[in-house]
């Protein structure tokens, strides 16, 4: 069963959304503050998070930052402020979508369904990790190993490697990497960010491998994007 995590401090909104979302057949976890949301995220590994920005204690921005340090679970930000600056901040912070209050039930459900369709593999990774015989990724601890040796990665490098690995063998367009890893709006990100980050990621894998890394393992496809292919050409 698909599990959603709702982080919302307004009890009336939680009650109304709980009736709506459970009525769609989804399991729902509820948190009234940021710390509880992070505990539930770590304990239950939901398939998607609905995150209100105005949470007490740790606010939504802090919860989003810590969530992105741990996992690529899709995050739909809910806020009463619909300014462009807030939307940009949310997307750059790693949110997958943004919905301004008040919103209709139909729009909320449609946004959730769209996020779940776009990222089925990402949600399953939060529970099972990834292993292809060379690379192993554990999203829960953000630990990575290459041929059994630990790889030292930043949170951003880990997210980048996750996206490339779950699409192994396929070219991931630069624009998509900017959206999924950096949260850049479509068509607005700087492609040099990706080039430099892939270079640093390759060096991290080389250090773990203690030797040359085959070019085809992590390669640029000119004019299109990047590809992870652990088994070579």
Automatic annotation (TrEMBL):
One of its GO terms (cellular component) is cytosol. Residues 127-230 form the OmpR/PhoB-type domain. One of its GO terms (biological process) is regulation of DNA-templated transcription. Residues 3-116 form the Response regulatory domain. SUPFAM superfamilies: CheY-like. PANTHER family: REGULATOR OF RPOS, TWO-COMPONENT RESPONSE REGULATOR ORR33. GO terms for molecular function: phosphorelay response regulator activity; transcription cis-regulatory region binding. InterPro entries: CheY-like_superfamily (IPR011006), OmpR/PhoB-type_DNA-bd (IPR001867), Sig_transdc_resp-reg_receiver (IPR001789), WalR-like (IPR039420), WH-like_DNA-bd_sf (IPR036388). This is DNA-binding response regulator. Residues 127-230 bind DNA. It comes from Mangrovactinospora gilvigrisea. It comes from the Bacteria. The modification 4-aspartylphosphate is found at residue 52. Keywords: DNA-binding, Phosphoprotein, Transcription, Transcription regulation, Two-component regulatory system. Pfam families: Response_reg (PF00072), Trans_reg_C (PF00486).
């Amino acid at each position: 069963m698909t599990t959603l995590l709702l982080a919302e401090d307004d009890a009336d909104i939680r009650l109304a959304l709980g009736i709506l979302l459970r009525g769609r057949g989804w399991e729902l976890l509820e948190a009234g503050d940021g710390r509880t949301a992070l505990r539930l995220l770590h304990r239950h590994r939901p398939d998607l998070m609905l995150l209100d920005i105005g949470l007490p204690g740790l606010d939504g921005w802090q919860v989003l930052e810590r969530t992105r340090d741990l996992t690529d679970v899709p995050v739909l930000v809910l806020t009463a402020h619909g300014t462009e600056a807030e939307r940009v901040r949310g997307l750059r912070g790693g949110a997958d979508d943004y919905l301004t209050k008040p919103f209709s039930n139909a729009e909320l459900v449609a946004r959730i369904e769209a996020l779940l369709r776009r990222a089925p593999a990402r949600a399953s990774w939060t529970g099972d990790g990834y292993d292809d015989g060379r690379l192993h990724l554990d999203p829960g601890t953000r630990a990575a190993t290459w041929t059994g040796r630990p790889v030292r990665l930043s949170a951003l490098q880990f997210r980048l490697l996750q996206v490339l690995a779950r699409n192994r063998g396929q070219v991931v367009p630069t624009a998509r990497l900017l959206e999924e890893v950096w949260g850049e709006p479509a068509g607005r990100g700087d492609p040099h960010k990706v080039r430099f980050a892939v270079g640093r990621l390759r060096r991290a894998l080389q250090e773990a491998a203690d030797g040359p890394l085959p070019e085809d393992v992590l390669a640029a496809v000119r004019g299109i994007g990047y590809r992870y292919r652990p088994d070579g050409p």
